[in-house]
Structures are given as structure tokens and as C-alpha cells.
Amino acid sequence: GDSVTQMEGPVTLSEEAFLTINCTYTATGYPSLFWYVQYPGEGLQLLLKATKADDKGSNKGFEATYRKETTSFHLEKGSVQVSDSAVYFCALILSGGGADGLTFGKGTHLIIQP
Amino acid sequence: NAGVTQTPKFQVLKTGQSMTLQCAQDMNHEYMSWYRQDPGMGLRLIHYSVGAGITDQGEVPNGYNVSRSTTEDFPLRLLSAAPSQTSVYFCASSYWGTGATGELFFGEGSRLTVL
Question: How far from A14 is each of A23, A102, A111, B15, CA to CA, in Å?
């Protein structure tokens, strides 16, 4: 079946460091890919998305590029802030939608120290 | 901007008790779903619905019931709570059908503890 694999962490970085959170996927079709963020005590919210190969999603200084050849969608940010501390989830859904919704990775807990 | 509203936010139950987690959305989304979030397990789909009167099971449906009588509401019922159902529960909704992007809109979660 479809699956998403991401580093679980926790990942601890200093403020202004460069961030990469790896995400790879397996899917039987051509998925759309997402990164969701969960701040402490809150629900998940969409951070960025990409719907086809070579698309780059970006938001709030975060970027991720849909790489079909390596089945990856790594999340990057050039200079992290303490306010970026959260849990980040990579997810996919097959094109055309799936009634069983998004397939999520297990989440990466990111901690940014001042 | 209400979005997806879940109640209650916190609940403590004793083993064997029943309860209902409420979920309502005001975005006219056809698709609604319930997930549970457990440490090291990520989010797992419990039940989902693609419209009023239509529900189906997800990955971990045992011990839970749902119904969808209106587009807006999608309650999750625990018939006889067990300690294994201690978790954080999220309701999520989205557009469904042609043109849908798959983006889910989440509620803030309901933290349930079963003693």
C-alpha cells in the first residue's frame, strides 16, 4: 500500500540554522504531496503542497520540491526560528482523491533553541 | 472563521463508559473524517464520510461508530471505552470530487483519557 517515511526526531537545532526534514514515499499512482505542521496544543494545518513532479511548494520560508525520480519531498528552511518549533507531518494522497484520505508519515518533532 | 469545531477538548472516562465526540464544519465540505494521534504512530484514520448518509471504515475502526445525518456534523461514538482508546482525536474535512486537492482542514483536537 501507499506509505510515507520521515525522520521522527526529535530534531534539535539552534536558531538561524538550516533545516532539512527528509520525506520519502511509496505510492501506486501519482500522488499529491503535502507538509502539515502541528504547533503545541493545536490541530494540524497545511504548510505547503505540490501536486506534480518538479513542483515546488513554499510558505513561511519553508520549501519542498516534488522529486518523482527519488520519490521524495524533503522540507527545507534556510534559517529557522524558535517559533518554528512544532511537529511536521509529510503526507500524500493519490491523484483523483482517495476516500480514505491522506496517508501520513509519523511526524518529525522539531525543537529550535535560542 | 469557525472552520472545524470539535467538542469537548478534554474528557476523562472510566472503562466501559460511552461518549460522543462532536465535530462540526461550516465550509460545506462533503468529506469528513476522524483520526487518532498516538505517540510514535502518527495519525491513523478511524472512519470517514463522503457525504450525508455515507460512512466507511478507515484503518482502525474497532470500538468506534459514526453517522452522518447532515453535511455539517460528523460525531464519533465510543460505545464502551477502553484504556487503549486513550488518545488525541482529530476531526478533519475537505472538498470532495472533481477539482478537490486533497487538502484537509483539521479541528483543534479532543484529548481523551480512559481510566
Answer: 22, 32, 8, 44
Say if A101 is an interface residue toward chain B (CB within 8 Å). Answer: yes
- A-B C-beta contacts closer than 8 Å: 62
Dump pLDDT digits (tens) for A18-55. Answer: 999 999 999 988 899 999 999 998 899 999 999 999 99
Mind listing the pLDDT tens digit for each residue in B27-64?
Answer: 999 999 999 999 888 899 999 999 999 999 998 999 99
Report the residue of B4, B30, B43 to disrupt the A interface, i.e. the one with the largest count of A CBs within 10 Å.
B43
The residue behind cell 497545511 is A46
Distance from the B50 Cα atom to the nearest Cα atom in chain A, whole angstroms: 7
